[in-house]
Specification:
By secondary structure, this protein is an alpha/beta fold. It has two domains: about 100 residues, Arc Repressor Mutant, subunit A; about 230 residues, Vaccinia Virus protein VP39 (Rossmann fold), CATH 3.40.50. It is about 45% helix and about 15% strand. The strands form two sheets. The chain has a seven-stranded mixed beta sheet with strand order 6-5-4-7-8-10-9, with helices on both faces. Strand 7, helix 15 and strand 8 form a beta-alpha-beta unit. Helix 2 packs across helix 7, helix 4 packs across helix 5 and helix 12 packs across helix 13. It is globular, with a radius of gyration of 26 Å. It starts with a helix and ends with a strand. About 0% of the residues have low confidence.
Length: about 375
């Protein structure tokens, strides 16, 4: 038995934490690891085509038999995918409780983005993200100084030359899955001068789906998709699939160095301008000169705050990209706006979206 006086002396001798600090818990750190565990589980499910096996509905016993796995462990796997929101689980009607074998079905997100034959299937995009999950020794190599030659290479250009079709397909999946096309189209269409516009330029447009969406709404509008030669050739296929090859053309080149054309009323740039402010300013000068007097420019990118520590999605985006190419730079929102104003534009709106994207609307004075 410990007397009250002894307890007081014991507490004085051992003043260490008993219930943990009030200011913080370890939970945010645990959540980071839990997210990594779920990412690896998602990749496993994609590798094993589990979402296609469940496309019409399937039981744990059925999946266990098809894949040759232990039944109880397979059921736990499917329940974990259900908890992640990728499946849902239902009991068949008209069966006795003891006889019930629950059926797993795809959730909406899996039906649209994970099923192989879906027009919105985003497996290429997800697999590209998985490839960026590096071991610590790989990360150390990427953080090391790079040569002058490699630092000048464009990550997008390198990927485009290596496999332009896959690169463009990933861009399509990202645009459709994030509702980026729907958001930007709605914003552009609301502008009072939209239906007066006759020419739209999409810089780094790749697939051409942004001008395609605008051309369907404004029948007088014609589009130009400007991109690297390898990507522009692939873009033509997407434009043809939309049945808009008579209204949307491609222009090959590097927009940092080559002519953009002229007489545009609308210019779009979506996740395309990733260079230092002095280079961005020069590019905005070119865009200003390529627009007519009523031109409107939409810059939709991830931007950083002034301290370059938020939003979290943008900070992580910048970190991962600069590991790929030393010349990559993600401007702060203030830097991008200042470059636009210095180029002669007036700021007419800043629109922030869930997921980290922000659209800056600049108009020619």
């Amino acid at each position: 038995m410990i007397l009250k006086k002894d307890k007081q002396n014991l507490n004085k001798q051992n003043p260490g934490p008993i219930m943990g600090p009030r200011e913080a818990t370890i939970q945010p750190l645990i959540s980071i690891f839990r997210a990594a565990e779920e990412a690896h589980l998602l990749k496993f499910a994609l590798d094993k085509n589990i979402f296609d096996l469940i496309a019409q509905g399937e039981t744990a016993a059925g999946i266990s038999e098809k894949l040759g796995y232990d039944y109880r462990k397979t059921r736990a796997l499917l329940d974990a995918l259900t908890a992640m929101g990728l499946l849902h689980k239902e009991s068949p009607e008209g069966r006795q409780q003891a006889e019930i074998e629950e059926i797993y079905r795809l959730s909406l997100i899996s039906f649209y983005y994970l099923k192989e034959n879906s027009p919105y299937c985003s497996r290429d995009l997800l697999m590209r993200r998985f490839k960026r999950l590096m071991l610590t020794d790989e990360l150390e190599v990427k953080l090391s100084p790079v040569s002058e030659e490699s630092s000048s290479n464009s990550s997008a250009a390198s990927q485009a030359k290596k496999n332009p079709e896959e690169f463009t397909r990933v861009m399509v999946q990202n645009a459709l899955g994030s509702s980026s096309i729907r958001r930007l189209t709605a914003l552009v269409v609301r502008h009072p001068r939209f239906f007066e516009a006759r020419r739209v330029l999409d810089l780094g447009g790749g697939h051409g789906l942004y001008p395609a969406a605008l051309c369907r709404i404004n029948p007088q509008l014609e589009g130009v998709v400007f991109d690297l030669p390898e990507i522009a050739q692939v873009a033509g296929n997407y434009i043809e699939r939309q049945g808009l090859q008579d209204r949307i053309t491609t222009r090959e080149g590097n927009f940092y160095h080559d002519s953009l054309g002229e007489d545009y009323q609308i210019v779009l740039a979506v996740n395309a301008f990733h260079r230092q402010p002095e280079i961005l300013r020069q590019l905005l000068d070119k865009i200003y000169a390529a627009m007519d007097s009523s031109g409107v420019l939409y810059l939709q990118h991830r931007y950083l705050n002034n301290k370059r520590t938020a939003p979290r999605e943008s900070v992580m985006f910048y970190f991962n990209r600069i590991l790929e190419v030393d010349a990559f730079y993600l401007p702060s929102l203030k830097e991008a706006v200042c470059c636009g104003i210095e180029a002669g534009f007036s700021l007419s709106g800043i629109f922030r979206y869930r997921g980290g994207d922000t659209c800056i609307r600049l108009e020619k004075r």
